[in-house]
Amino acid sequence: MARRAEDDRRASRASRGDVLCWALALAALLVWWTIIVGAPRWWAGEGVWARVGAVGYLALSRVCHMEPSRCLWVCGAPLGLCARCCGIWAGATLGVLLLPLVCGFGNRRLPHPRYLWIVAAAVALDAASERVGLRGSIAWLRVTTGGLLGLTAACYVMPAMLLAMNQIRSKEGATCNQQARAATT
């Protein structure tokens, strides 16, 4: 029991690599949000900005259907993602921001999968009820269910990234140690 507590304490300590991983994830999300929010403004502009907006919409079209009736609108143009996808990315961003405050930068513990299944079921129920015609598209519901999914996903993705990074570092360390031993013999 004491050994497990020590292992948990050691696993929860953040290294510079852990903090760097969080910072890179947050920076990537901020760039992504710049594209999501900026594409309509740029596209509405003239010259090179209109082309930048078109490229932004093209990049976003790879991850979302972008159906205008299901999108949130800014500056008279739809965002590059539907309301649910905006919710997913907003939830993921919030998760990346809050998870280190709640669990620490060095948290590598994955939550039980049931939480992800519960939230995914809520999103599926929302999408299915809309698809079969039980109701129309409700933007706040799409944003909310997507946001819960993104927030929950961040609780799995960030610790998994840290675990993967640790495995890569430990393999590199083992390789360096083997090379050092080989050089000294």
Termini distance?
41 Å
Structural class: mainly alpha
Radius of gyration: 21 Å
Percent of residues in β-strands: 5-15%
Number of helices: 6
* Main β sheet profile: 2 strands, antiparallel
Rough outline: flat
Could you explain the architecture of this structure?
This protein is mainly alpha-helical and 185 residues long. The protein has one domain. A two-stranded antiparallel sheet has the order 1-2. Helix 4 packs across helix 6. The chain is flat, with a radius of gyration of 21 Å.
Offer a concise description of the structure.
This protein is mainly alpha-helical. It has helices at residues 2-12, 16-44, 48-61, 83-103, 113-131, 139-184; strands at 71-74, 77-82.
List keywords for this structure.
mainly alpha; two-stranded antiparallel ribbon; 2 strands
Outline the secondary-structure elements.
Elements: H1 2-12, H2 16-44, H3 48-61, E1 71-74, E2 77-82, H4 83-103, H5 113-131, H6 139-184
Antiparallel strand pairs: 1-2
Helix pairs in contact: 2-3, 2-4, 2-6, 4-6, 5-6
